[in-house]
Specification:
104 residues; two-stranded antiparallel ribbon; two-stranded parallel ribbon; 22% helix; globular; disordered N terminus; phosphopantetheine binding; AMP-dep_synth/lig_dom; AMP-dependent synthetase/ligase domain-containing protein
């Protein structure tokens, strides 16, 4: 089991924020994923900051609504090549939950 530091907090990260103090804009690319290539060749897909922020805000308002964050744990079990791993890592990065990595 591994511990990961909390890098930030999703509270106050509203999708309407025009610009953060570090100069990041809503349409800037936050991270990239590769498609499976089922239509031929895999391609790179850029995920914008505004999409990531909205996704995390939705998690906070639905999945984690009314729960205390300090005790929440998320198992990291999706392969890093699968988009579900992004959700698992982002939850910890912004303080929505603590993650635990397991060697299965």
């Amino acid at each position: 089991m591994a511990e990961f530091p909390v890098l930030g907090d999703a509270r106050g990260m509203g999708a309407g924020a025009a610009r953060q103090r570090d100069g990041v804009r809503p349409r800037d690319v936050a991270y990239t994923l590769f498609t499976s290539g089922s239509a031929g060749t895999p391609r790179v897909v850029g995920i914008e900051h505004r999409s990531a922020v909205r996704y995390l805000a939705a998690l906070e308002q639905t999945v984690y609504a009314g729960q205390r964050r300090q005790g929440l744990r998320v198992a990291v079990k999706a392969p890093m090549t699968f988009d579900a791993s992004v959700k698992q890592l982002w939850q910890a990065a912004v303080g929505l939950a603590n993650i635990r990595a397991f060697n299965l």
